[in-house]
Design brief:
The chain is an alpha/beta fold. It has a single domain, classed as 3-Layer(aba) Sandwich (Rossmann fold). Strands 6-7-8-3-9-10 form a 6-stranded mixed β-sheet. The radius of gyration is 17 Å and the shape is globular.
Length: about 200
């Protein structure tokens, strides 16, 4: 049985201007999700988190590797149907336009009506009564419905870590273009790079 999501030796390189086109940034990721779950995604600004989301949803073209959603290469699916496999939710970020390498009619159909993978890019957690509970319940219902949920949070308040601890079964930490998986919240917070990123918010040992 195919994994729900397989990020297979994925590489994205960005190049600078000029004849030599030097590499200015590289993102590398290799992981898979074999069951419905909620995954927390953290990392410094500019580390590659949004680029990873773009690659998973097919709106950014990888330099190397593949993204398989339920066994299907999302970059071989028709452009307007890719959000039936994976969808990127965001507050103020303008989604990158698809780079069309082939006419859409030459690509595969999605063969799904609703997305399997849901990626939330720094959602706003209002402190009004009941709102955070509503959001946590929403993520849990998606997971119970057989979906994969990514929750990208840039913690700047202690309650952000509480949300990640309660909502997420596993985690990814992105630093300088490298994606490192962690099996649970305690393993995440025990990592020296993660603790350096969290600073004063890092839980006490």
């Amino acid at each position: 049985m195919a994994a729900l999501l397989k990020v297979d030796r994925l590489v994205k390189r960005y190049h600078g201007p000029g004849w030599s086109r030097p590499v200015t940034f590289t993102l590398e990721a290799d992981f898979e999700v074999d069951a419905p779950r909620t995954i927390g995604l953290l990392g410094p600004n500019g580390s590659g988190k949004t680029t990873l989301f773009e690659l998973v949803t097919g709106s950014n073209l990888p330099t190397e590797g593949r993204v398989l959603v339920d066994g299907r290469d999302i970059h071989k699916v028709r452009y307007r149907e890719r959000d039936r496999l994976a969808i990127h939710y965001h507050q103020s970020y303008q989604v990158r336009a698809f780079r069309k390498t082939l006419p859409s009619f030459l690509l595969e159909r999605a063969r799904r009506d609703t997305p399997l993978v849901h990626l939330f890019d720094e959602p706003q957690f209002a402190l009004q009564d009941g709102y955070i509970g509503f959001m946590l319940d929403f993520f849990a219902r998606l997971r119970r419905g057989g979906h994969v949920v990514f929750l990208c949070v840039h913690p700047n308040e202690p309650f952000h870590l509480d949300i990640l601890r309660e909502a997420c079964e596993s985690f990814l930490f992105v630093r300088r273009g490298r994606v490192t998986p962690f099996g649970d919240f305690d393993a995440l917070c025990a990592d020296a790079d993660v603790r350096g990123y969290l600073g004063a918010l890092a839980p006490a040992h």
